[in-house]
Amino acid sequence: MLLIFLVILIFFGPKKIPELATSLGKGLRKFREAKDGLEDQLKTAMKEPMEALQTAKSNFEMHVNAAAEQVHETSKALEANVPAPTPAPLPAAAAPVPPVNTLP
After folding, report:
1. Which letter, b or e, does each residue of 49-64 get, where b requires 16 or more Cβ atoms within 10 Å of its Cβ?
2. Which ranges in the chain belong to alpha helices (H)?
3. pLDDT tens digits along 20-70
4. Burial, 8: exposed, middle or buried (Cβ in 10 Å; 0-12, 13-18, 19+)?
5. By the 8 A CB rule, do 12 and 20 touch?
6. Contact, 47 vs 39, CB < 8 A?
7. Cβ neighbours of residue 12 under 8 Å, at least 6 residues apart?
8. Which residues contact 67 (CB under 8 A, 6 or more apart)?
9. How confident is the model at residue 93, as a pLDDT?
10. Residue 91: what are its φ and ψ, rounded to 5°?
11. Rounded-to-integer distance, Cα 47 and Cα 41, Å
């Protein structure tokens, strides 16, 4: 750090150093203000689309939940109206069929 200060002192002289420091401070301040302004603009620009996405998501979830509830209610109603299945009667034993001989 001391070496850097000595190099600046040699190149610019003791009278120019306060002016350089002032200019550097002003430049850094302007840079920081510009950076903060850009951050604010980006946050503002992203806020509206994000709110729209959140609203769309909540509306979608609400519609999906309502549809799922209707499907659940319909399936319960169908289950209540369908009688229990009765077992099918077993077929009667058939007479054995003799094998067919096709050889001469």
Report:
1. eeeeeeeeeeeeeeee
2. 2-12, 17-81
3. 889 989 999 999 999 999 999 999 999 989 999 999 999 999 999 999 999
4. middle
5. yes
6. no
7. 20
8. none
9. 60
10. -70, 145
11. 10
Residue with token string 């909540």: 58
CA distance 60 to 8: 64
The amino acid sitting at 76 is K
What are 61's two structure tokens? 């979830």
> Is-contact 37 29, C-beta < 8 A?
no
CA pair distance 12, 22, nearest whole angstrom: 14
User: 8: which residues sit within 8 A by CB, 6+ positions away?
Assistant: 17, 20
